[in-house]
Amino acid sequence: MALNIGLRSLIGFAALLVFLAPAAPLDLDHSYQSARAAYDHGDYAKAWDTIETALASGGRRDDEIVCRLRVLGALAQIRLGDFDKVLALAEPELPPALRRSDLAVERFRALAIASYKKGRLADAKRYNDQAKRLAEEAHRELLPKVLLGRANMTDIYDARTLERDMRELLRVAKRSGDVQYQTLSLGTLSKIAASQERFDEAIDFGQRTLELAAAAHDDTNLHRTEGNLGWYFNELGDRESAEEHLRAAIEIATRLHAEDNRVVYLLQLGEDEMSRGDLASARRDVVTARDLALKLHSKQTGNAMLSVAEVAFLSGDMAGAAAGNADALHFNEKVDKKAVLRSRILDARIAMEGGKLDDARATLEQVLKEAEEKSVRWEAELWLAHVYAARNDATPAELHFRNAIETVDEVRREVRKSELRISVPDLATQLYDDYIEFLVRQGNNIDALRVAELNRARTLAEGLQLDRNRKFDPARAARDANVVALSYHLGHSRSFLWAIGPGGVALFELPPAETIEKACSEYQQTFATARGTLQSHGILGEKLYQMLVAPAAKTLHGASRVAIIPDGVLAAFNFETLVVPSPRRYWIEAMTIETAPSLELLAHAHNSGKPGRLLLVGNSTPPDRAFPPLAFADEEMQRVKKHFGDAKVLAGKQATPRAYLASAPESYAFIHFVAHGVATQQHPLDSAVVLAGDAEGYKLYARDVIAHRVKARLVTISSCHGAGRRTYRGEGLVGLAWAFLGAGAHEVIAALWEVNDRATPDLMDSMYGAIQAGHDPVDALRTAKLKLLRSGTIYRKPFYWAPFVVYTGS
Known about the structure:
By secondary structure, the chain is an alpha/beta fold.
């Protein structure tokens, strides 16, 4: 009995000892692996919970696994936003054996980020540099992380250093095939370029980022890149491309609930909508952005309030604009200098509306003292010009107008790619409108014409290396070309027509751009199909003639040839279809009409009159079923060729883009394409002649055309939409015709709309017959058109003869 009691007591005592013993230490290796897995999957809170428990168990030890837990904990706390904990975990020095390990690189990274977030910039730079040096020497696999971390510290490193880092990261990522780091490095390079107002380079990097993100289905980087591209294109005046990217960014961000980013994209889109006068859409988008920014406590709240105030101002709500702008200033004054300056410009405009010109002048002069960004500077100069104009002080007003234009020119000169440079004048549409309006009110009609000419075909002229003279003589330009020139400027409140002939320069006022655009669109739609006739729609053509030409009718007395210098929508309109009253007939029946991008290019135009050699390209079957064979292409090729004794023909499978470029096109006097054509609205230099395919493709792109010089007396693009679909404020209609003029062609014939395959061989046969008879291309094309017009057949309708227009180059 005693024995049993003793056994029970012993067992009870043993159980008590077990209960009182300390818990067995955690397996720290297992804890680290668990925390690492959670961290790698983005669950930073779970990773930290595991690390905190493990460190509580063995955190006083100084071996490798504890050090790794502490550094991983620091990295997790960076994600969780507690930078004091990051420093507490990472500041203790590693044991000597680990001081050149991969762990040391990660520790320096964590310390650099936490120091930066705490405002200890010198420490952040020191830790960053140590991390980079050690990674380069011993742990190159960690170099991408180090370089990317440095790129986020823009107030420690200058742009040149950061750009060098990102180019190195890009090289490393390409060698290793790491698409994510390629995407991140290119995206960062685009933002660095944008921060220095190198927006053309930013677009190049951004487009490469977009391709990688799209291929990887990386929606997060995709919407950010789309949004950034929207910003970059906006800064270069290309509102259409900007809007395309911004709408894509908004769609993806909405789907991903990336609300902070959506605020930015909506504000950019609202700016586009304001620029084109769509205030209802702009108000909807910027108010949505403001409400979302307030809900999120976003850093963009002040910018959103400023955009709402700008819409109110443009809508005539001065009280709402002033109140909203005051709120915007309150939010932005410590965080966004550029936004503050924009608010001050808006303050000055509000003061001007209230007649407080001295206040407005003082505000704008202070903005000019502080502004660094060119976009802010030229806008401040513009409104200073308005202040002085309102005070009837013409000399300083003109000085500030010129300063504003020079600042926009600086932006333009810094853009290296011509396809991006051509949109820059669209940034300053109001500037040019207002300066021309000011000069006209001052009675300086010829100077107003010179300002209108400043950006006309400027990129073309630069490509052709023509010396442009701001003080050129318009009357002499028209006289040298033996024409009466009609030069148009479409303005918001009123438009202008300068008639330049032997008697000098005469100015006429026309309706606002919106009125002209509506009338042109309504009329041209009638004969872009075979339904339009003189009998059915002549009244619309006569109305347009009275609007666009009749004011200058006296200047045209005795003239047989007119050169149109178009602006805006007029660049895509055929003036030959205007209807002259009494007797009612198309204007082509009374006048020979050509189109020139600018007066200066018209002045440089010349033709040798020699027949010369022909390069004939086409009658091919593209590899894309969207472009079926042209039934009458062979007939057109044969009828064109018969007019030339010396002709090189690239037909069928031989008619490839590469064959054209290799055929020495600069050695031919005439180049003629018989093929399908495509014209793109968003990217006009992607317009192309569609030919046969080879290993390098089947489209002869406008961008390739302009890169290969020609000396042709005439290039004829016998295809649909060869003239293009996109007009720019300075360059006019940009597409294949523009590209061939830029390549050096003296004249280009191209189509504004669909070309009829059956009628075109007759037209071209007649035209080349007239050229061989001694007519220049402008007269020859008119002769051929009149033959169709007077044929008594279906081909008398404008649909068949009117799409082709002659564009005169130099």
